Amino acid sequence: MNKKKTSWLIGVLATGMIIFGLWLSGTQAAIFVKGYLLYKADSVTAEDFAPKLQTTDAEVSLPDAEPAQYPAAPVEEPAETAQLPKGIDYPSDPEIGDLMGELIIPELGASLPIIHGTDEDELEKGVGHYAGSVLPGQSDNSVLSGHRDTVFRELGKVGKGDELIVTTAEGTFTYRVRQVRIVDEDDRTVIVPKPRATLTVSTCYPFDFVGYAPDRYILVADLVSSS
User: Fold this and answer.
1) Any coiled-coil ranges, and where (predicted)?
2) Which of 84, 129, 160, 172 has the fewest CB atoms lying closer than 10 Å?
3) Which pLDDT tens digit goes with each residue over 82-109?
4) pTM, to two decimals
């Protein structure tokens, strides 16, 4: 009788320990799973926004700009700002559709015609010069743009430190890329004035996007020599 009672007690204790172990394990597992799912959800959100937060640099605020959408980031200044060449004066402004010169990209071994204007008619012929910006070589922001599937098909290979050379009837102007930006298509900081001779080159991004690309790939380059 005592042996049966002892065996029964041992069985009850063993069963109780198993049930408790399962409950504890299940509770910890539930907490772990919940924490993991929250972590993964947070990671996805961070990855979605990280590229723009790291590459966007709104240097100048415009009245219609949205600082929350385009957070500011440190701007790298050229090492020898005081020695940068001054801009030149053109005798006259070109007309829309005029051939202005060439954009030479040594990194790509490319020489592309620059057409004054950025409507589709001009962009079909080559790189368009935004008429609202200064001419290449002048002391402000000269803005060029082109299609990612034609003239700027390989522009993504050009980065910080690479040269961009513009030749016009007034001379040859060599710029060095200081900054690469990826911004939303509505980011107007791309065309704002600059305190020194700057070349801003823009195309649609991503390069392999099927259909209308939502972003822009921007090269910001400083004038380092002219002749």
Assistant:
1) none
2) 160
3) 344 445 677 788 999 999 999 999 999 9
4) 0.62
Residue 33, strand partner residues:
none
What are the E-state strand segments in the chain? 99-105, 110-116, 127-129, 141-145, 163-168, 171-184, 198-205, 215-226
- Kindly state the tokens that stand for 187: 């980011």
* Structural domains of the chain in order of their starting residue, each with its CATH number: 56-226 (2.40.260.10)
Question: Within 10 Å of residue 103's Cβ, how many Cβ atoms?
Answer: 25
Give yes or no for a cis peptide into 94 (omega within 30° of 0): no
Interatomic CA distance for residues 97 and 172, integer angstroms: 21
- Are residues 219 and 200 in contact, defined by beta-carbon separation less than 8 angstroms? yes
**Residue 38 — φ and ψ, nearest 5°?**
-65, -40
Work out the number of other CB atoms within 10 angstroms of the CB of residue 83: 8
**CA angle centred on 67, ends 61 and 70, rounded to 5°:** 95
Q: How far is CA 79 from the centre of its chain?
A: 23
DSSP character at residue 82:
G
147 is catalytic: yes
Reduced to 3 states, what is the DSSP secondary structure of residue 221? strand
Residue in 85, 98, 104, 147 annotated catalytic:
147
Catalytic entry in 183, 201, 204, 221: 204
Rounded to an integer, the average pLDDT of 175-195 is 92
CB 223 within 8 A of CB 199: yes
Exposed/middle/buried for 46, CB within 10 Å: 0-12, 13-18, 19+? exposed
